[in-house]
Amino acid sequence: MTEGVSVGICDDVLLWREEITDKVLAYQTEKQIQITIKQYSCAEDYLKAQDDIDILFLDIEMSGMSGIALKDILIQNKRKEMIAFITCYDGYIREAFGKNVCGFIDKPVSREKVFEVLDKAVEEKKENAVCRLTAETGVSLKEIQYIKSNDKYIEIYTENGVVPGYISLKECEDILPVQTFIRVSRFYIVNFAAIKNIAGTIEMNDGQKIKVSRGKLKEIQRQYADYLMEIRFPYI
Fold first, then answer.
1. Counting CB atoms within 10 angstroms of each CB, which of 59, 64, 85, 126 has the fewest?
2. Considering the entire predicted model, what is its pTM?
């Protein structure tokens, strides 16, 4: 199960919080993505908690502070969570628009709409993580030949040398595109584009030979063949 997102559900009606929770759990099961869920009964509780949330399902009309007022505070404080508004009334939509708002869901809440919002949140988190990796190291994904784990940090091997990175190999595995990168052992992730040959080991373009975890060789060869087929015949 790959790393996913943290979800907040803020609604003053328990029935709606549970309804959305059920659909988020269904998404987790179907997509095999790890999700943490936290519920809040009012906007004030959400602000007080200061939780690290990726996507917030937010009721517009609540007792106390409204969802729109909470949205304005979050944007003013430069918070990064995406917001999906939940509402029974179309009249609020213009007022609810904002930088972090990714969608609107009518009550009763549909599974399709919840899944659509979660797809956006997962994609956004991946894009942000890739930006973090490239910003911190100054290396674009195309430059990476392979990545080696070295205890608490990583070494990114490129055509122009080795660049250190300060995230784990597991984090790299979660954020790098699976069409191009594959984890081949406990210590290495390789870029298919930088492979010269795969036999008992993987030979990279720079001459480095990388051992493959026992039992993974056939699967790696299959995925590499799929990659070569895709770049040679992309429209088949």
1. 64
2. 0.62
User: Which residues of the chain, if any, have pLDDT below 70?
Assistant: 1-3, 89-99, 231-236
How does pLDDT run across 161-170, given as a tens digit for each residue? 999 988 889 8
For 109, which DSSP code?
P
In the block, residue with structure tokens 């309804």: 19
**Dist CA 143 CA 157 (whole Å):** 8
DSSP bridge pairs for 87: 106
Count Cβ neighbours within 10 Å for each residue of 7-28 and write b for 16 or more, e otherwise: bbbbbbeeebbebbbebbeebb
Query: How would you classify residue 32: left for phi > 0, otherwise alpha for psi between -120 and 50, otherwise beta?
Result: left
Q: Which secondary-structure segment (H or E) carries 20?
A: helix 14-31
Q: Measuring CA to CA, how many Å separate 83 from each of 99, 103, 114?
A: 9, 7, 12
Q: pLDDT for 183-227, tens place per residue?
A: 999 999 999 999 999 988 999 999 999 999 888 899 999 999 988
Say how many Å lie between the first and final Cα of the chain, rounded: 30
Counting Cα atoms < 13 Å in the Cβ hemisphere of 24 gives 25
